[in-house]
TrEMBL record:
This is 2-hydroxy-6-oxononadienedioate/2-hydroxy-6-oxononatrienedioate hydrolase. It comes from the Bacteria. Pfam families: Abhydrolase_6 (PF12697). Residues 8-232 form the AB hydrolase-1 domain. It comes from Pigmentiphaga humi. Its EC number is 3.7.1.14. Keywords: Hydrolase. The keyword Hydrolase applies. Transmembrane segments: none annotated. It is an enzyme of class 3 (hydrolase).
């Protein structure tokens, strides 16, 4: 297939928008039809995936998901594997909410952040939440301000819906060994939210997966190190699609 005729769907994560993919759209936009969906107030990952499929260009497409968007990408693959030419999973995970105390701790933490968003506003919540999003050297930087700006464009209602989706996330681990398309698994080496070890485990069970660790980057790899991410995407998008 001619790359000029291919689409590249770029799925954002929790409270993120096109900003998280801005550098990738600029770099690849002349070669691929780039599309960044907006989930609105959808509150399940499967609902988000169905929305992506309804609004995707006709025919097969290349699919990349960052953070929560990676989980949505796996749901898209589960629902319509024949539509996905190539898959990229960035700074993400695949397992359901942990049972017992670990899961309750995650739930309580997310609910506490939602209370801040409702009582003090989204930017105040972002300042409390997003400090773990980027490499420590990028705190108090223009990039961190851009992350806060992105969070502030969302609402507590959207935050509540996406928290609901993440707390009810399905276990996608059994799906990984059946993935048949060229797959890139990418992670910032200093990602403290979705650590590299988790991505190594995912890549190990996806047939033929390519693992890329992005140096000097936290969770927001597409914004923190866009050139390195674009180079990894270049290799991924040039991988021949399996017959």
């Amino acid at each position: 297939m001619n790359p000029a005729s291919e689409s590249l769907l770029l799925l954002p994560g929790l409270l993120c928008d096109r900003t998280v993919w801005e550098d990738q759209c600029a770099y690849f936009g002349a070669r691929y039809a780039c599309q960044v969906p907006d989930y609105g107030t959808l509150d399940t990952l499967s609902g988000m995936a169905e929305h992506v499929l309804r609004h995707a260009p006709p025919g097969p497409f290349n699919l990349a998901g960052h953070s929560m968007g990676g989980r949505v990408a796996l749901e898209v693959l589960r629902l319509a594997p024949q539509r996905v030419l190539r898959l990229a999973l960035l700074d993400t995970g695949c397992q359901a909410l942990d049972p017992g105390a670990a899961g309750e701790t995650e739930r309580a933490g997310r609910m506490a952040l939602l209370r801040i968003a409702r009582e003090e506003g989204m930017r105040a919540m972002g300042r409390a939440w997003a400090r773990g999003m980027v490499h420590p050297d990028r705190l108090d930087s223009a990039l961190f301000d851009a992350v806060l700006d992105m969070i502030e464009r969302r609402t507590p209602e959207i935050f509540a819906a996406q928290i609901h989706a993440l707390l009810a996330r399905p276990d996608a681990l059994p799906l990984l060994p059946a993935i048949a398309c060229p797959t890139l698994v990418l992670c910032g080496r200093q990602d403290s939210w979705s650590p590299l070890a988790r991505h190594e485990e995912m890549a190990a069970v996806i047939p033929g997966a390519d693992l890329a660790a992005i140096e000097d980057s936290g969770h927001m790899s597409t914004m923190e190190q866009p050139e390195a991410v674009n180079a990894a995407f270049d290799r991924w998008l040039r991988t021949p699609v399996r017959a």
